[in-house]
Amino acid sequence: MIFASDNWAGAHPRIAAALTAASDGFASAYGSSEQDQRVETMFNEVFEREVAVFFVGTGTAANSLAMAAYAKPGGVVFAHADAHMIADECGAPEFLADIRLRAVDGPSGRMEANALRAAIKRFPPGFVHGGQPGAVSITQSSEIGTIYTLEEIEEIGAIAKSHGLPLHMDGARFANALVSLDVTPAEMTWKRGVDLVSFGATKNGCWCAEALVFMNPADAEGFPFLRKRAAKLFSKSRFMAAQFEAYLTDGLWLENARHANEMAQQLAKVLEASPHTRLAWHPQANEIFPIMEASLAESLRAEGAVFYPWAAPEDIEDQIGEGETLCRFVTSFATTQAQIYAFADLLETAGGSKKAAQ
Amino acid sequence: MIFASDNWAGAHPRIAAALTAASDGFASAYGSSEQDQRVETMFNEVFEREVAVFFVGTGTAANSLAMAAYAKPGGVVFAHADAHMIADECGAPEFLADIRLRAVDGPSGRMEANALRAAIKRFPPGFVHGGQPGAVSITQSSEIGTIYTLEEIEEIGAIAKSHGLPLHMDGARFANALVSLDVTPAEMTWKRGVDLVSFGATKNGCWCAEALVFMNPADAEGFPFLRKRAAKLFSKSRFMAAQFEAYLTDGLWLENARHANEMAQQLAKVLEASPHTRLAWHPQANEIFPIMEASLAESLRAEGAVFYPWAAPEDIEDQIGEGETLCRFVTSFATTQAQIYAFADLLETAGGSKKAAQ
Amino acid sequence: MIFASDNWAGAHPRIAAALTAASDGFASAYGSSEQDQRVETMFNEVFEREVAVFFVGTGTAANSLAMAAYAKPGGVVFAHADAHMIADECGAPEFLADIRLRAVDGPSGRMEANALRAAIKRFPPGFVHGGQPGAVSITQSSEIGTIYTLEEIEEIGAIAKSHGLPLHMDGARFANALVSLDVTPAEMTWKRGVDLVSFGATKNGCWCAEALVFMNPADAEGFPFLRKRAAKLFSKSRFMAAQFEAYLTDGLWLENARHANEMAQQLAKVLEASPHTRLAWHPQANEIFPIMEASLAESLRAEGAVFYPWAAPEDIEDQIGEGETLCRFVTSFATTQAQIYAFADLLETAGGSKKAAQ
Amino acid sequence: MIFASDNWAGAHPRIAAALTAASDGFASAYGSSEQDQRVETMFNEVFEREVAVFFVGTGTAANSLAMAAYAKPGGVVFAHADAHMIADECGAPEFLADIRLRAVDGPSGRMEANALRAAIKRFPPGFVHGGQPGAVSITQSSEIGTIYTLEEIEEIGAIAKSHGLPLHMDGARFANALVSLDVTPAEMTWKRGVDLVSFGATKNGCWCAEALVFMNPADAEGFPFLRKRAAKLFSKSRFMAAQFEAYLTDGLWLENARHANEMAQQLAKVLEASPHTRLAWHPQANEIFPIMEASLAESLRAEGAVFYPWAAPEDIEDQIGEGETLCRFVTSFATTQAQIYAFADLLETAGGSKKAAQ
C-alpha cells in the first residue's frame, strides 16, 4: 500500500525491456545516435509540429534549464506559490538560471490570472531596482493534483505574451493532465500559448527520463551549451532515448497515466466513502488529498500504508480541524487494484478500531 | 570496428539485468532506499574505510560538484592542461563551483610535481588580486591513457597537503588504472593523499553511473544540498544503485576494465606491427594513440573503422610529420577480439592498397 | 522642497573637505593605507569591540556580500517582505551570494517574531528539497521609517541563534535609528544578537561610503576574496576612508541623523496639522508617509515639491480611500527648515485652492 | 619616490574641486541627474559618435560587466596571458559573467594575431564539450606598459569580427595609450573594430571613476539590469559624473596622461643611464620595467623608493641573470620631476655604495 509518491515506483516492464534491448551494440554518444534522433522525431509527432527536444535527468534539471533558456539579468519568473520550482528544488532554478521566483496566488494550486497581472505590474519596464519580468511558469497537472482548463492556460498565455514573456509548463505529470482533460498535447500547450514544456516521464513509468521541449526550435539556439555547462548532457544518451521510445510507442505513456488516474479515482471513492476521512478537494489527476485525524493516519501507517502528511494550502487551512491532518496519496502506473482494496479494508478496520478505542 | 570512445558501448548484460530486476516493486526515493544504502556500504568495502558516496549522472557533474565541495571565493584549481575539466566540460566546473582552472604542464598527460609547485606559488596567501589556491585535481587514468604511479600520486598529494589543499582524482577510467597498476582502490587513493574521487562506471559497462566518493565523510557535510541545488539528485535513485550493485558484485568492474585494457594491448600490438602506423606513446589503460598518414586514416574510416583524430599534446607535436595525424582509439568492455582482428586485416589491406596506390 | 530621497542630497561640507584634504600625496592602495587602518580602528570604538570592517560602494553591495559571507548551498535568507534586498536590489543578493530570499510578514515594516519562527520551520534540517535556512536579515530603521525596539531585535536574534543562523542588520539608515532610540551602536547590534551590519553613510552625508562590519572578525575569514571576486575592492580606498573619518569624527554622523530626524518630525507635524493630509503611521526616523488625495499630490508636485508615491504595505491598504494615494517624504542632513516652511505654505495654498476648486 | 602604482596617487586638484562644487544641492539619483546626462553627452564628443556610457566603481567591475554584456553559455574570452582579467581580478569576470578566460600568447604583453586565430580554432562551432568563443579582449596600454599599434588593433578586430565576436578594450590606462600614439579615441577604438571600452580614469587623476562605453548603444540593451544586479549602480551617481566632467574638461585627462608618460620617459632615461640597471623593454606609456640586482632593489627601497618586483613574462625570462630581479615603476599625474631627480641621485649613490661594498 505505497501511496508515498509516483517516484517510489520502479520502471514499467516495457521500459526495462527497451533498455535491455538497447544495451547491446555501439552507438554514437551525446545524443547523436540514430535512436536519439528517431526519438526526437517522435516528439514532433506528439506535438504535431517541429519541436526541439533535449533530454535531462531530473525534473528539477528540466525546469531550471527551461528558466535558463529565457533568462534575463535581474529576471523574475512568476509561478504559483506551491510550484515545485519554489517549494521543492532547493534553489536550483535561481542557481542555474540566475533568476528569481515570485509567488503568484491562486486557489486549488493554480495561478489566478488577475493575481498574475498584478504581480507582473510590480516590475514596470526599465525599473532596475525591482528587476524585470522574465517568464511565467505553470504546473500541469498541478502540485496538488488539480488541472488548468484549456481556457485558463490560454488566458495566462495571453497575459504572458502581452508582456513579451515566454510561458513554461512544468509537466512532471504532463500525461496525467492530458488524459484527464482528454485533449492532445498540442491543444494543451502551444495552441494555448505554451512555449516550453518540461516533459516528465520518470513519474509515469520510466527510470529516469525527462525532456525539455521547445515549441519553437529557434528558441533553443545556444541551448546545447547551456545543458552541457550545467553538466547535464549524458554520454550514453540512448539510455534516455530508449526509455522515451518505449514510453511513446503504442501509447504506453497515456495508458500508464490513465491507469494512475483511474486508481486515484478509485482511491478517492474509498476515502470519500469512509466516515473517517474526507477529501480536501477533488482529484483530477493522480494525487489525492484526504483530511483525517492524525491518530488515524498513524494507525494506517503502522499497518503498512505509506503516504505523506502535506502542508495545507492557505485557502484550505481553515477546513482542517484540531487534531486533523492533511495527507497526500499518489498513485502511479504501478498501483494495483489489490492495493486499493487492501487499503480500503485497512481504513475500515483502523477507522473502526479507532472509533472503538475512543 | 568502433574505437571512437568507451561511451559508444551500451551496457553490460549484468547491468541491464540488474536494472530489470530492480524495476519491479516500490522503494523510497532520492537515495533513501535499502538498495541505495546497501550499495553505499559496498563502497566502504571497495575503499577499505568509511566513505561518503553520492551518485550523479555524468562525469562532468561528478567533477564539478567535487570542485564545489571544496570551493573557496576566488579559488583556483590546478589540473593538467589536457584535463577533462579544462578541455571538455564547457566550463561546467567554473559555472557550478565558481572556481577557476589553472593548467599545469607535464609530459604524457600527467601533471609534473615541480610545475604544480610553481603554479601554486603564483597564488601567495592573502593576495586577493590573484585569488587563492583551492584544490588539485589529477585524472587517473589520464586523458591520454597514461597512468600516474603511486609515488607520483603521493608526491602530488604531499604538495597539496602542504598548502592545505584537497586532492581530487577524476576517475572516469578509475578501474582501468586500477587493474593496470594492479593495486587496491585504497592504495591508489587515500593512502597516497587523495581526498575525493569521481568514480566513473559509465564508460566501463554501466548506462549512467557516476559516484562522488569522499574519503572523509566529514568533508561531505552540506553536500546533499549542493547536489540538489545543482539539480542532480535522481528521484528513482535505485536505478543508479542497481547499476553500481551489479558493477561492484563479483568483480564485474575489474573484469570489464581488464578486458578493455587487454584489448588495448592487442590493438597496440597491431598498430605497432604495421609499417604504416606507430604509437605516439605506450598505452597503459584503454586508450591507444597511433600516428599515421591522414590519407590512411581516411581509408580506414571509409572501410568502417571509427576513431577520432586527436590534438597532439605539446610534448609530442614535433613527432608528427607533414601529412600525418595523431588518432585516438578507445577500447571497452564491449570490444571483441573479432573487432581487433577485423581491424588488423583492414589495416593491412588499407595500408597495402595505400602503398600500392602511391 | 526635495523630499524624494536622502540620496538626492550631495555630500556634507566636512565630507567634501576631507576628500580634498586626502587628495594630495601618495598612499598605498586597496585598503592598506594608514588612513584606511586608522578608520578601521575608529569602528572598533564605535562598536566598543574589535570588529572587522570592509568598505564597499553601495548598500546593495554591502547587503549582497553580507549574504555571501554566510552563504550555504540551497540557503534561504529570511527578511521582511518590504526589505530592500527583496524589493529593490534587482536580485543582487541572489546573484552574488547564491541565496534565496524568503519574505516574512509583520506590520509596520518590521518582521514579526512568530512569523519568523513559522518561516524557518518550513525548512527542517536535512530536507534537501526545500533548502536550508541561511540567515536572518532586518532593516534598521526599516524601509518605511519605523524602528525595531531593542527587545524586538533581541527576540529575533534569539530565534536566529536557536537555529544557528547569523543575524544581519541592513543599516542603510543605521544612524537615524540610533539617534531615534538614543542608544549606542553596541546596544543596537551585538548586545542584541546582531552579527553583521551593513553600515550606511551615503544617505547620511557621504558621497559613497558603505561599510560591512563583522561583529566577530573570525567570521570575515575569506571575505577579502569575496569582495574582490565581486569586483568591489576600490584601489584608492582612502577616498572611502577619508569620508568615514570625517563622518565619524566629532559626531558628525549622529548630528546629521539627528537633524534629518528632527526635520522629519517637523514635516510630520505639518502634514498632521493639515486638513488635507494624514499620516499612515508615525515616523520614527527620517521617512514620513502621508496619505492624501492624488489630485493634491499632483498639485504639490506641480509647484515644485518632489516626493514619490509609495505602494501601500498590506496592513495599511484599507486605510487608503478611493482617489487617495500613499506618499513617501524623506528628509536628510541637507533638508532645511526653510524647505519645511516653504512646503507648509505650499500645502496650505494647494490644499486651499484644491478645496476652493471643488 | 613613490613608483608603486598610479593608484597610489590621490586625486587631481581639479577633480577634488569638482566634487566639492557638486556636493551642494539636490539632484536625482541613480544616474538620472542633469550632470550625469551632461557627462554622457561629453562621451559622445570624445568618441565622435553616439555611445552608451555606464559608470562603475572599479576597473575590475568595468571589465567583468563588459564580459557579462556579451556572455554566452559556455563562452570563452580570449585575452593575453598577462591580462588584468586573467592575472589580477580574483576570478571576478568568471564569477560575474559566467565566462572562462583563455590565455593567448604574444610578446611584449600583446596578443599575437596568429596565436588568437589558433586559440579560437580550438572552439569549433557547435562543439559543446569545449564551449564556444565569446569575446576577445585587449588591454591598451598593456599591463606591461606597451601599446598596440592601430594596425594591430585592426587585425585583431578583423579576426574577432570574422568569428562574430565582440572586441573589448581594457582601457585602465586608455589615456596613456592615446597620447602615446597621438591619435583620437575614435581612431584607437571603433574605427579599428573595438566594440566596448573599459574607460579608466581612476589611475589618471580621479578618486574612483571608471566607465563602460558601448560603441553601439543597441548592445547595451538590458545592461542597466546587469549593472544593478551586480550591485554596481551608485545612488549619488553625480559624484562619478562630477569627476568625469572635470576629467574631460579642457583636456585634463590628456594633460595628466601626457605628464605621466613624460615622467616615465625621464625615469627610463635615468634607469638606462645607470650602469646598475637596464630596461627589460622600452616603455611606451607610464610603466617602466628595469632589471637590476636584487640587492640594489633592496638598497633603493631601504632609502625610500617604492616599487614592486614583477614576475617576468616568458619571452623575457632568460634575460634576467642570477641574482637579478625585474621591477615595475609606475608614474602618474602626481609624479614630480623632483621625485625623478631624487631617485636618480639615490640610484647613483646606492649603485655606488653597492659597488664599493662588493
What does this protein structure show overall?
- 4 copies of one chain form a homotetramer.
- By secondary structure, chain A is of the alpha/beta class.
- Chain A is 42% helix and 16% strand.
- Chain A has 14 helices and 12 strands.
- Chain A has helices spanning 13-22, 34-47, 59-69, 84-87, 92-97, 113-121, 150-162, 174-181, 185-188, 223-229, 238-248, 252-273, 294-302, 337-357; strands at residues 52-56, 75-80, 100-104, 132-139, 167-171, 196-200, 210-214, 277-279, 287-288, 290-293, 308-309, 324-330.
- In chain A, the strands form 2 sheets. In chain A, strands 1-7-6-5-4-2-3 form a 7-stranded mixed beta sheet, with helices on both faces.
- In chain A, helix 7 links the parallel strand 4 and strand 5 (167-171).
- In chain A, helix 8 (174-181) packs across helix 12 (252-273).
- The radius of gyration of chain A is 21 Å and the shape is globular.
- In chain A, 62% of the residues are buried.
- The model of chain A has no long low-confidence stretch (mean pLDDT 96).
- Chains in contact: A-B, A-C, A-D, B-C, B-D, C-D.
- Chains A and B meet through helix 1, helix 3, helix 5 and helix 10 of A and helix 1, helix 3, helix 5 and helix 10 of B.
Quick structural overview:
The structure is a homotetramer of 358-residue chains. Chain A has 358 residues and is α/β, with parallel strands linked by helices.
Features:
homotetramer; 358 residues; five-stranded antiparallel sheet
